[in-house]
Amino acid sequence: MGSVRIGGGNPLALIAGPCVIEDESHLLRVGERLLEFCGTAGVPLILKASFDKANRTSHRSYRGPGLGEGLRILGAVKRKLGVPVIFDGTHSVQLPGGAGAASSGEREFVAPLVRAAVAAGCDGLFLEVHPHPDRAPSDGPTMLPLEAVPALLAEVTAIARALAPELT
Hints:
alpha/beta; two-stranded antiparallel ribbon; 4 helices; 7 strands; globular
């Protein structure tokens, strides 16, 4: 996408941004910070934000096969198809309908799940980030605080380098 190449021996990539566009200046500020963080870490960035967000409100909705089986399946698909694999770290901790009329989540598990996905060999990460997640208009409980991104990038790039030192 653009100049960012994902998979096929390329460095770990990051797709990140706020859940939903709040306004132009907010998205620009978040994007500028992410570019700074990714530049320091040597991680290519694709900025994301939704323009129309449908909230998932039912806890009965299908959530997927679970972490262990999900990572196994992603690894098998990557090996068989060679389709870069992106791990969605923030939606993986979402609790649909957990806050009544909105989704809730367990943000404290984003970092360990992301580290596990990189160790399992994913090619990139999808993260929703926000300067103040608890004040975000959508998916705040699952979003990673923007200022937590540099430390997480340092951790996951170290894991990726250990798995594929030729990419450094």
